Structure formats: C-alpha cells, structure tokens
Amino acid sequence: MDIKQLNNWLKDxxxxxxxxxxxxxxxxxxxIMLGKGRQGAVFQVSDDICVKVFGNAEDCDREHFALxxxxxxxxxxxxxxxxxxxLAMDIVKGVDVREYLQSQPLxxxxxxxxxxxxxxxxxxxxxxxxxxxxxxxxxxxGNLKVIDVAxxxxxxxxxxxPRKLLISLGEENKAIFLTHVQEMAPExxxxxxxxxxxxxxxxxxxxxxxxxRPDKEKVKKLSKKLLTTKDEEKYVVQLQGLVHKVFKEEWxxxxxxxxxxxxxxxxxxxxxxxSLEHGKLxxxxxxxxxxxxxxxxxxxxRRFVGEGSPRHYEKHSDGGKRFEGERYRDRLSRMKKRQHYx
Length: 342
Known about the structure:
Radius of gyration: 38 Å
Largest sheet: 5 strands, antiparallel
Order of helices and strands: HEEEEEHEEEHHEEHHHHHEEH
Strand order of the largest sheet: 3-4-5-7-6
Structural class: alpha+beta
Number of helices: 10
Distance between the termini: 79 Å
Strand content: 15-25%
C-alpha cells in the first residue's frame, strides 16, 4: 500500500460528526465509499484494504487501540497504517449477522461462536463485552470477524451482560440464543437471566417513581407539614440545632487541622454541649419556681431569679427592681423574635 498516495487522497475527503446521526461526508477523491456510521466512513483502497476516516481523533485512537488488543486473534481485521483521523486495515468480507438471520436460522453452532466472541472480548481486555449483530460478520469459512470496536474500550459505564447483542437479535432469536446458552453454559445463562430480570424490574420502578403528571396540589398540601418557621417555639429549636451542627463540624475540622486527636476533640465537644444543656435545665427550674411563687401571690419590688444573693439589681422605670438574669432573658426573647422575622 502506497501511504503517500493514500495521504493525498485523504486530503480530498472531509468527514464531520453529526449529533445522533451518521457522519456527514464530502468525498472529492477517487476512492469509493463502502459505508458510513456514527464515528466515520469507510473507503476502498484496493481489493483487500480499506481506509476508515473518522470525524474526530478520539474515535480514531479508540478504534486503533481496540483493534490493536485483538491483532493476535482471528476476530479482528489487520491494521496496515494509522493517521490522526484514519485507519487503513483489511476489508472485512462475508455477510453480517443481521443480514444472515433474515434468511437463515440461528443455529447452536452460530450461538457457540457468538459466545466465543464475547469470551475473546473479555480475554483481550475490552471494557464492554457486547456488540451489535450488524457489526459481526460471518466469513466464508464460518468464522466471525468484527468491525466498529471503538466503543468497546475506555467506557465509564458498561452492562454486566451482552445487552446490545440480545436486543439486536430480536425477541425470537434472542429466545433461541438464550436457549442455546442455557444448554451449553447453564451458569452463564443463570447470571444473564438475573440481569435481564433486574432490567425489567428497573423499568417497572421507573413507571412508579416518575409518573407523567405528578399531583402537584397534593404535594403542596402535604409539604406544609415540613414547615417550621411559622411556629416560633419550633423554629428556635430547629435553628439552635442547625447552629449546633455547623459549630460542631467546624470545630472538629479546626481541631483536626491543628493536629488534635479526633477522640479528644469529640470528648471536648460533648462536654461543652453537656454543660450548656445543664445550664438550660437550671434556667428552666428557676423559671418554674418564679412562676410558682407568682401564682401564690408573692409580690414585692424584687423578683428573684435563682437561689443566689439578690445584690445585683437595677432600678426599673416603673419604680420596681429587676435582676440581671431577668434582663438577660428579656433580651434573649427579643432576639428570638427578631430571628423569627429574618
């Protein structure tokens, strides 16, 4: 093959990718286009060699890498040359499985060869152990060859069973193929059947979880149960819990950044919040005792907050006296009310 002549011909060929469609091709060269797909177009160079021209370099690199992995097997065409956007390789002759099954039955022997193809994919390191029937060719001697293997490598998501192959076979031939698999490899059949059932259940779950028209009014009505800001008492509790959580997380990160022991940090935090909880209980008991004394008719210029000495007090504008703890509670109450309206 004359590489220099090939490069001159390729200068007159432009291949452009199109979203969700086969590539767009402009061919001003003497080469005859044999076919095209999503990644590129194939042109005949000689009776035995073709060149595949890609729309982008990544797909070209993918296919070259995938074909390179299988060069020691008889399943892939031989590579002759590579450029930034082209691959020169053997022409794959024969008839593809899609055309073959239009007039011929799916025999156990063909099913065996398809299973062996998947085994080869696995053994050479393909990420996707699967292929479409139109990309699998039956040769004159009965052996298989595959084309368009760019998407079998560098895959982020793959299926654990040959989903594409089974779907492409159609329901009738799919059932026949699975029967052959059950007879030849019952353990493999059981695993594939498991994944097929999981896929069916996934479709059912989708229909339940994502109806076409959700009842928005019902959701709007029920969601009111999640609101907390309209109830001041609950709002203060929820807000305090949120602040507590943020404080705890930031404290832990700060202490750990300083090289402190995680156990020691958590112990200190627990001790700190326990002391706050005890303080809240004491305040609650004092408020309860004060309210009880007021109910009994205890009146006077001094209103005691706790059992401590009542030496710290101030003149109130109405002539009475209020203690510092009481002023603190009033201020806290006003702060909570302001938080409610923020």
